[in-house]
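STRUCTURE:
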């Protein structure tokens, strides 16, 4: 059966307070480092990956060198353009990083660590946990932790699955024992604790709303749309008056936002965000640590769930 649905959450009584320095919004920029870990015939997979720059598909019996090269752009050029931008603006981000992608791009991995970005585990490969057995998924989680620790010199303390977790994921993360949070939900603007058998797992929700994948899907006409879309959201969240601290996630992909025109839009939005005194631009790990300290989990054990 898996976890129960919660359609209420905080309801009319959200937690009251602010982020450090009295900030109203915690803004977390997420860089999805996946290039090199996606499905590829070159890696022995039965098919290649989609989500390239053009809405077309190659017959699955053939290797799609065009889409492969789009992913290579993210690894060869896009990630480094983004890292230069973050360094220039003094912005620390969270990398949702597939372990294999880091293994294959050690320069990018080193830069992430040296600049103080958080490396959050995004699986060993950019794979679909819901197709795995419980044992296979546990092994994949362990492999991701081992690999990222070896590549980056520090273990990941956060987890984000590809699009959605399996019904076992949250339990497995708690059993592994080293994760302070997961981001496997899109259901709130505020962190919360999810019941998992005899414990509470901190969830720092992610969002697909403020995400550069809309360039690919055709929902954004151009970079200016991205600036307007994200800026409106940030300003609105900061000016809401219910007394609750808000979280905003902006999702990026080096193969998409690493392109120059899109990077310029990202720079414009981040310059606006960092100019606001009521916005805390930070990593997901810092958000998790702050939440655990100032908004601890409920007292007692949750009711056992299936």
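SEQUENCE:
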């Amino acid at each position: 059966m898996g976890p129960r649905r919660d359609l209420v959450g905080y309801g009319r009584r959200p937690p009251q307070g602010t982020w450090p320095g009295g900030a109203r919004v915690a803004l977390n920029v997420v860089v999805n480092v996946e290039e090199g870990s996606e499905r590829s015939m070159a890696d022995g997979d039965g098919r290649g990956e989609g989500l390239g720059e053009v809405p077309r598909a190659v017959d699955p019996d053939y290797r799609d060198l065009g889409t492969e090269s789009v992913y290579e752009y993210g690894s060869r050029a896009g990630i480094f353009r983004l890292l230069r931008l973050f360094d220039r603006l003094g912005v620390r981000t969270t990398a949702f990083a597939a372990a294999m992608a880091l293994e294959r791009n050690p320069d990018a991995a080193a830069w992430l660590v040296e600049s103080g970005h958080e490396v959050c585990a995004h699986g060993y490969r950019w794979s679909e946990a819901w197709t795995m057995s419980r044992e296979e998924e546990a092994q994949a989680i362990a492999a991701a932790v081992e690999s990222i620790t070896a590549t980056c010199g520090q273990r990941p303390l956060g987890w984000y699955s590809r699009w959605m977790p399996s019904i076992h994921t949250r339990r497995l993360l708690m059993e592994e024992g080293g994760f302070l949070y997961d981001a496997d939900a899109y259901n709130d603007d505020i962190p919360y604790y999810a019941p998992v058998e005899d414990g509470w797992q901190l969830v720092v929700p992610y969002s697909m709303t403020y995400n550069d994948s809309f360039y690919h899907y055709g929902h954004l006409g151009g970079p200016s749309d991205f600036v307007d879309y994200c800026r409106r959201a940030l300003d609105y969240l900061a000016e809401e008056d219910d007394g609750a601290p808000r979280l905003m996630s902006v999702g990026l992909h080096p193969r998409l936002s690493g392109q120059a025109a899109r990077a310029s839009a990202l720079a414009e939005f981040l310059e606006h965000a960092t100019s606001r005194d009521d916005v805390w631009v930070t990593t997901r790990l810092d958000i998790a640590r702050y939440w655990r300290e100032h908004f601890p989990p409920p007292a007692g054990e949750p009711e056992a769930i299936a």
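REMARK: Residues 129 and 137 are 6 Å apart (CA to CA).
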